[in-house]
Structures are given as C-alpha cells and as structure tokens.
Amino acid sequence: MYAWWHTLKNYLVIYWLFAKNCFMAQMEYRFNFYLGIGVEISYLIAKLLYVVVVYKTDLHIGSITPDGILLFVGTFTLMTGIYSGLFFYNSLKISEYVREGTLDLLLVKPISLQFLVTLRYIHFGTPIPNVIAGGVMIVIGWNALEIPVTFFHLFAYGLFLGVATILAYCLMFLPALLSFWFVNTGGLGMIFYSIWDANNMPMAIYSKWARRIGIYVLPFMVITNFGPLLIMQELRVDQLIWGLCVPIIMLVGFRMLWKRAISNYSSASG
Amino acid sequence: MSSYETYNRIFKLGMQSALEYRMDLIFSLLSAFFPIMIQYFIWSAVYADNPDQAYFGYSYHEMIMYTIFAAFTTRIVMTHVEHEMALDIKDGHLNRYLVRPINYFSYRFFNLIGQKMFFNCLMVCAIFAVLICYSIYNGTPMKLERFLLFLAAVILAFILNMLISYAIAAIAFWLSEISYFFEMTGLFVIIISGGMFPVDIFGPWVNAMLDYSPFKLTIYFAANVVSGRLAREEIIAGIGMQGLWIISMYILSRILWRIGMKRYLGLGG
C-alpha cells in the first residue's frame, strides 16, 4: 500500500512539473497563447448557435425544456474545455511520434510510457473560454430548473464530471492509438470529433439505437448526459450503475489496447 | 514542357498524394455523414410538435435537404490551402517555386484540384443519390437541369473559396505563426457561408450585410440551388455574382500577394 501511495505521489509531482513546464513555454509565446483562446472562442460561437436555435424554436425534448437543454450544452462545453486542455494536444502528438519515430526516445524514460505520452502536454489557454461559458450555462440552467444546491447534488454532478473526464481520455485517444497500425488516422479522428460534438444536445434527441450504441458500445453519451440527468432525477438505476462501472471497464480496455499498440510499434521512420 | 503538361503533372501528383492513405480517405468520407445525422435529429425534434410550421423560412423537408446538401457542399468547397501556403512563406519553401518556371497560385490550384478530385466526385455522387431518393420518396421527377446548375455553382464556389483562402494566406507575410489564426478564420468562414445552419438564422440585419460579401455565394447558395429553393432566374443571377466575386477576389489576392512578396525574405529552415 505504501509503495502504491509513493508511486502515485511521484507521478503527481511529475504531472505538476509537466504543467509548470507547459505554462512557462506557453507564456513565452503569449501571442500564440491568446490566439489559442481566440480559436476556442470561435468554436464556442459555433456551439452557441445551437443554443440560439434551441431558444428561437422553443425546443422541448420530451420533458426537457430549453433551460434543461442549456444545462446539457453547458456540461458539454465544460467537458470540451477539459478535453482540449488536458488531452487534445497529446492525442495529436501520438501519431506524430509514430510517424517520425520519435517514440524511441520516450520508450527509454524511466516512467510509464502511457502516462508520458498521453498526459505530457497541458494547454492552459484553450480551456478558458469553454470552462467559463460552460460554467455560466450550467449555473443559468441549474437555477432556471430550480434544482436545489445541496451537497448531494454538487457531489453527484462532480462525480459524473470525473467519470466524464476518464471516458473522454479513453475514447478520444482511440483514433491516435490506431495510428500504430494505420499511421495516418486523421479521418478517423474527424469521425470521433463528430461523435463528440453529438453530445452538444441531450441524448433524448437521438433514436433508441443511437442511444444504446452511445451508452453501451462507445459510451460518448455518458460523458455529458448522466450528470445533468442525475441532478434532474431522470437517471434510471441501471443507468446509474452503468455510469459508475463504465470508466473502470474503459480504463482496463484502454490499457490492454495500449499494450497491444506499443508491441506493434516498429520505429520504422527515419 | 508545355504549361498543359506541367499543370497536368501537378494535378496527378495531387491525386496520388490524396490516395496515398486510402484507409484515411475512407474515414474522411464517413466523417462527412456524422454532422448530417446530428442535425437531422435536432431538426426532427424541432419540427416534431409543429411539422407544418416553417422555422427561419424553411419547412421540415427543406431544412433536412439544406442540412444534407450544405454538409456535402462544405466538404467540397473547403480547401484549407492557406495552412500550406503560410508554411511555404514561413519556412522559406516559397523560394523553390519562385525559381521554377511555374506560377505559385496555379501550382497550388492544380495540386488542390488533384487532391480533392476523388473525394469531391464521391461527394457529388452522394448528392445525386440523395436527389434521386428524394424524388422517388416524393413521387416527383428529378430535375436534371437543377443538378447541372448545382454543378456549375459548386465549381464556382470551390474556385471562390480557394481565392478567399489565397487572399487570407497572404497575412502570413506579416505574421509568422498564424496556424491558430487560420483555424479561426476557417471556422468563421464556414459559419457565415451557411455550412452549419442556413444563414437565415442570423436574422435579416446580418443577412443583409452578408449579401455584400462573397461568403453566401459559396455553401449557402450552392445548397439552395440543389435543394430547389431558388428560381431559375435567381440561380443564373447568383452564378453571375459568383463570377464577379471570383474576378474581384483574384484581383484582391494578387494585390495582397504582390505587396506581401516585397516583404518576403526567403529565410527559414
């Protein structure tokens, strides 16, 4: 137990150093840092167009009112911020490591290769607009739905944000992992980004089969739906159990796939 | 070597590079369908309670048709060529084109056509297939004339978009690290061209402003030509406007590149 705790502490220290290093590097090129924020603002405007459509058409999805939809859009926007800050740049780097053979250098480092490759870079600028806008939308939606701000609600919502972060990690790195077999996986990445964007709306909008696939096969829909549904008291018990189990299943599955991917690495590039 | 042979070779090179990663090409084709599915579900939910009501001036069927055609047209006309041009300027690779007996714009243009030829042909086939399915579903004969006018409109939209990218790329002469900037402008151009939603959702005021820009004449115009929302006279007038904007953007981009070239140092890695 002590050894496990010691290892965790070491990795947290290394992660802190990664964060510090990335922050210093990004502050060195401040214009780029601000432009990164600008790019995210433009993507945010694109997401907000959906909100415009929802309110202009007074869209009701079953029992979910436009304010309820705003809670879902806010959760999606917040999760996009977390994903873009913690994972997006690392996923882009993986296919570059494979294509150019630079993974060789990382293989010899005395820490977990998965940790190093998937969490090395943190972007501080891009999450800012999404986290702020997502937070504002969540607060507005939460208030409008008159959901009481209790410890249980905050804990439950926070727990599912944690689940969502693990699922975002496992799912959004999948196309990058496949680059060990196919080298160029930009097209597959585009499919995954499109599926990610499908979370911009509550899953109730989609057909029954799309929902089943989105919850049980590629659990993208768990990411932004289960948290809001739980605090709106519309999450079924079986869905709640699945929501708590799926991050463990995905993490184990991802680890196994990672090991297979690494064993497939040939370092063929010049 | 004649100009025809030169640019034909460049076209073929572009085609070969596009077909190098076939699996990736298949995934890229598949990815075009996902945004359509998402929007289909959204609009179906919007119109579910009032199927006969028109939102933003579109009936349910018109909105679905617009969504499908706009998504395909966006994939056809978006070039993203500004990224490569900016890299050429930043890294000094432009030098190699300046000393060769070719025109840089023509090189990029024919290379791009080669790169997008296979993909765009498939997209046009998909649009044709949707039109056939729609006419069978509705029991109305498909108008070949409308499809041919769409082909003309989408080819001109492609050229117009390429010229917009060419003009925007000239900013790389003044700013060295601008990949983020292009990311921003690319998305902005898609939004105001009607690639996400019909530009009618922005309201009459923004729409009136967009009438004086070339953006509405790319995705929005081409999608509305093929969906049958525009009368024949409006299509002809629109194609004429596309021609005028192509000439204007060509002149503007040439001026920008001429000024930019005076600042170009040819340094870089």
TrEMBL record, chain A:
Superkingdom classification of source: Bacteria
InterPro entries per the UniProt record, alphabetical: ABC-2_transporter-like
UniProtKB keywords: Membrane, Transmembrane, Transmembrane helix
Pfam family, one: ABC2_membrane_6
Name of the protein described by the UniProt record: ABC-2 type transport system permease protein
Keyword Cytoplasm: no
UniProt keyword Transmembrane, yes or no: yes
TM helices/strands, residue ranges: 33-56, 68-89, 128-145, 152-174, 180-201, 213-233, 239-258
Species per Swiss-Prot/TrEMBL record: Paenibacillus endophyticus
Automatic annotation (TrEMBL), chain B:
Xref: InterPro entries: ABC-2_transporter-like
Phylogenetic classification of the source organism: Bacteria, Bacillati, Bacillota, Bacilli, Bacillales
Domain of life, source organism: Bacteria
One Pfam family this sequence matches: ABC2_membrane_6
The protein's name: ABC-2 type transport system permease protein
Keywords: Membrane, Transmembrane, Transmembrane helix
Keyword DNA-binding applies: no
Transmembrane segments: 21-43, 63-81, 117-137, 149-175, 187-206, 235-257
